[in-house]
Amino acid sequence: ILPPYNTGMSNIHSIISIGVLARKLKVKTSWLRAEADAGRLPHIKAGDTILFDPVTVERILLERARGGAADEPR
Fold it and tell me: Is the pLDDT of residue 14 over 70?
């Protein structure tokens, strides 16, 4: 078995749809779509479907709330 393609997501097996993530985070799907399209949230896109790793998205948003970039070393 080959390892999953590296998408920058922490666990490819936990991906969820944009609608599910929006409900979980209590944000609009349009906001998530804009963040993904701008490259600020890692995602997988297949046609009109956008999928996210919720653990990675939550980590990025927590880092933003703290005033730092998620990828900056500490």
Answer: yes
